Amino acid sequence: MGAYLLRRLLLVIPTLLGIMIINFVLVQFVPGGPIEQIIAEVEGGGDVFQNIAGGGGDAEVATGGQETGYVGARGLPPEFIAELEKQFGFDKPPLERFLHMMWDYMRFDFGESWFRSESVVNLVLEKMPVSITLGLWSTLIAYVVSIPLGIRKAVRDGSSFDTWTSGAIIVGYAIPGFLFAILLIVLFAGGSYWRIFPLRGLTSDNWEDLSMVGKALDYFWHITLPVFASTISAFATLTLLTKNSFLEEVKKQYVMTARAKGLTEGRVLYGHVFRNAMLIVIAGFPGLFIGVFFGGSLIIETLFSLDGLGRLGFEAAVARDYPIVFGTLFAFSLLGLIIGIISDLTYVLVDPRIDFESRG
């Protein structure tokens, strides 16, 4: 296991480097960079993307007739453009900028946001509670509901209960999270029917004045709808995974042997089958949490006015705030790769029979 773990850790480096190289190269061809953003504000011409779409890309500087290569730069002195390039580091070749960025990131120095005047680490830590709330509670609820339901469906496989719950699960899986979120808002957040739950934020304005119990109740009151909206897809997948795992284990020889010895059905299911069937479900917890943590959070956060990592990443991408874009990309890609290794280790911990060392 030690050699396998060492190989996986060594693979993290080229994988992470490949992710960063691909995204860095793609960014070089994306129009509307940070300098164009500032030029658009200086010229009062509105959004830089409107200038691009409208053909306002004449980059010739009036002074000296020099080409700056930036959209909307007509009439701006070359010294001003050069100062902007120096400020954002674009006076250096792309390769030098990339190597300097990776050297900083390897030391976990993610720099400062270009447009927020705050360090990337502080911004991520500030937005992290929202994303952790959605990811953690959604994953826990999915496990609490899906495992008993999946076991029940496996025990009653082919029954009317299994049929109608499968239909409900398929419908739930087919509905996108954002559409379900809109439905919840319309029904329960004052959209057209009842105003039971709040529509904005994680806490109320008077949260600091509430007691400990009041703070807890206020917190759960605010997260109910966004957590349910982000749980729907994970719930469907996990339920079917649990059912299929149980059905596969029930057909094995050791189950027939246990029944032949006269063990009760409950003892067979929960004393033997449950432990083996839950291996893949339990070991998949880290990966499922990361999937819920990162997947689909932008739309959910936007609909419920939650200021989390999804909105931070989207706003940084629109504003071309590259320190945030690349800093979070590096950190979360590294986290995802480490979580993959942890998932493999979890498989071995819950089932010592698994031996990754023997593969390949």
Automatic annotation (TrEMBL):
<dbReference type="GO" id="GO:0042884">
    <property type="term" value="P:microcin transport"/>
</dbReference>
<dbReference type="InterPro" id="IPR000515">
    <property type="entry name" value="MetI-like"/>
</dbReference>
<keyword id="KW-1133">Transmembrane helix</keyword>
<feature type="transmembrane region" description="Helical">
    <location>
        <begin position="277"/>
        <end position="304"/>
    </location>
</feature>
<dbReference type="GO" id="GO:0005886">
    <property type="term" value="C:plasma membrane"/>
</dbReference>
<feature type="transmembrane region" description="Helical">
    <location>
        <begin position="219"/>
        <end position="242"/>
    </location>
</feature>
<comment type="similarity">
    <text>Belongs to the binding-protein-dependent transport system permease family.</text>
</comment>
<keyword id="KW-0997">Cell inner membrane</keyword>
<dbReference type="InterPro" id="IPR035906">
    <property type="entry name" value="MetI-like_sf"/>
</dbReference>
<dbReference type="Pfam" id="PF00528">
    <property type="entry name" value="BPD_transp_1"/>
</dbReference>
<dbReference type="GO" id="GO:0055085">
    <property type="term" value="P:transmembrane transport"/>
</dbReference>
<keyword id="KW-1003">Cell membrane</keyword>
<protein>
    <submittedName>
        <fullName>Oligopeptide transport system permease protein OppB</fullName>
    </submittedName>
</protein>
<feature type="transmembrane region" description="Helical">
    <location>
        <begin position="324"/>
        <end position="350"/>
    </location>
</feature>
<feature type="transmembrane region" description="Helical">
    <location>
        <begin position="130"/>
        <end position="151"/>
    </location>
</feature>
<feature type="transmembrane region" description="Helical">
    <location>
        <begin position="9"/>
        <end position="30"/>
    </location>
</feature>
<keyword id="KW-0472">Membrane</keyword>
<feature type="transmembrane region" description="Helical">
    <location>
        <begin position="163"/>
        <end position="189"/>
    </location>
</feature>
<feature type="domain" description="ABC transmembrane type-1">
    <location>
        <begin position="128"/>
        <end position="347"/>
    </location>
</feature>
<keyword id="KW-0812">Transmembrane</keyword>
<keyword id="KW-0813">Transport</keyword>
